[in-house]
Amino acid sequence: MLSNKLLDALSNQVNAEYYSAYLYLVMSAAADEMGLKGCSNWLFCQAQEEMAHGTHIYKYILERGAAPTFAAIDLPPTSFEDIHKVFAMVLEHEQKVSKMCNSLASLAMQESDHAGYQFMMWFVNEQVEEEASATEILNKLKLIGDDSGMLLTLDNELAARMFQDPFPAE
């Protein structure tokens, strides 16, 4: 059984994951408007992944015999100067989510909930990959600078990403 404290924190994380999906959908639309279909695709795949994360936590709460609580999802920023700013925000956001996942894992241990800790460790490890991916794209964008030809090359690279459900058996 989940403690009330851990249940509240997990419920907040479900909301945070859905906010992340919402944020990435807005960013995907912005990239599309910029004519960067590959960047738009990468961000759309990211939105799908965040929805899967939120759903996985939601199902975990149910498996533990509890019911999550939901809150309104905040409106994310809706305008972006350029694709560099978009991916800078992606990295900043993923770093924030990493802190949240680390806090949840710590809370699970404080509550002596070893199953909860093990569950959250998947997300802690996933965040290493999330931050690395955002950092890699941001570093490439910094190298590209204002070179539109190289930006199109990166855009084509990002167009190849396909969403893979991290929890296909559910």
Work out the radius of gyration. 17 Å
Strands, count: 0
Query: Helix- and strand-based class?
Result: mainly alpha
What best-fitting shape do the alpha-carbon axes yield?
elongated
Q: Low-confidence segments, ≥5 residues, pLDDT <50? A: none
Biggest sheet, in brief?
A: none
Q: Roughly how much helix do the residues carry, as a percent range?
A: over 70%
- Spatial separation of the terminal alpha carbons: 21 Å
Strand content: under 5%
Mean pLDDT: 96
* Total count of helical runs of at least 4 residues: 5
> Secondary-structure element order, as H and E?
HHHHH
Can you tell me about this structure?
The protein has 170 residues and is mostly helical. It is built from five helices and no strands. It has helices at residues 4-33, 37-63, 83-110, 114-144, 148-159. 32% of the residues are buried.
Short description:
The chain has helices spanning 4-33, 37-63, 83-110, 114-144, 148-159. It is mainly α and 170 residues long.
Descriptive labels:
170 residues, mainly alpha, 75% helix, elongated
Topology (elements, then pairings):
Layout: H1 4-33, H2 37-63, H3 83-110, H4 114-144, H5 148-159
